[in-house]
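Our preliminary data section would be incomplete without showing what the modeling component actually yields. Below, a chain of 311 amino acids is followed by its predicted structure, encoded as C-alpha cells that our downstream tools consume directly.
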Amino acid sequence: MGSRTVNNVAARKVAIIGVPMDLGANRRGVDMGPSAIRITQLTDAIRSLGIDVVDVGDIDVHIPEEVPLGDSKMRYIQEIHKVCDQLRNVITKVMLEGRTPITLGGDHSIAIGSIEAVSGICAAKGKRLGLIWADAHGDMNTPSTTLTGNVHGMPLSHVLGMWSDRDLPCDTASRVSSAHSCLVGVRDLDEREKKLIRDSGIHVFTMKEIDRDGIAQIMQDVIRITTAGTAGIHVSFDVDVLDPSIAPGVGTPKKGGLDYREAHFLMESIADSGKLIGLDVVEVNPILDVRNATAELANELILSALGKSIF
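Predicted structure:
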C-alpha cells in the first residue's frame, strides 16, 4: 500500500499514548494491548507516511491485586478515575502542542479520559465534539443496569452524561452530544441496554444496516452526522467490532463483525474527511490472540485513519 497527501493538518503531528489497564474488563490481558500494538513497529510505520510522531509512553496503572474493588456495580472505579484523569492531562498537553492523540488500550473504559480531554479542547474553541464509537457492544450500561459491574461496558453512557459518580464525575455531557455521535458495528446488546440506547438519541448503525446499505453509505451518513457543526471527530475503536475470524485477540468476541475491507474503509473514510482529532484503539488482548494478528491489524487500521491508502 502506498501513502497519499493527507488534508488533515492536525494529523501531520501525532502522539502515541499507552494505557495498560484491564481494570474495567472481565478478562485479564488487555493491559498488554499497548505493547502488542507497539511491537508491530507502529511508530516507524506512521513516520513512513511523512507524519511527525512521538510516543510519550504509558500511563501508570495499578493491577487489580493492588487496588480495592470498591463498588460491585462499578468495579475498581477509584483507580479507573485516577487513570482517566492522568490520561486527560497527557492528551490535553499533546493536543496543545498541536498533536493528534492516538491512545492504545487497555480496556474501553479509558475512553472516558481520552474523550474528556479531546472534548475539553473543543469546548475551549466553543465547539462540540463529533464521536464515532465502533464496537460490537453498546457500552451504554450504567451502574443501575449493569449485570457485571465491569466499567468497560459503561463508558459511552458516561461520556454522554447518563451517569456519574463521586469517584468518576462526568465533565463531557455538555461537550459531547448524542446528536453528533454514532455507534457503528453494534451486534450484541443487553436487553436493558437497548432502551438506554434508544432513549439517548445516539445514531446507531448495526451490522444489519451495514449488511443492507453497505459500508460506503453508512460511513457517508456517519461522517455527515459527526462533522455537522463540530470541531472534529474522535474515533473510539474497539477491535471487537471486527469479525473474530480476522481479530481473534479480544475478550468478548462476537461473530458477524466488520470484515477486513469494511474496517479499512471505515478508517479511510475518516481520513478522507480531514476531521480526525483523536483516536482510541482498545481491547487488544494478546493472551487470546494468534501470532499477534489482532495487533497487526490494529496497526494497519491506525495507518488507514492517518491517510495510508491503496493509491
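The chain has one domain: 2-309. Confidence is low (pLDDT under 50) at residues 1-10. Preliminary results of this kind motivate Aim 1 of the renewal.
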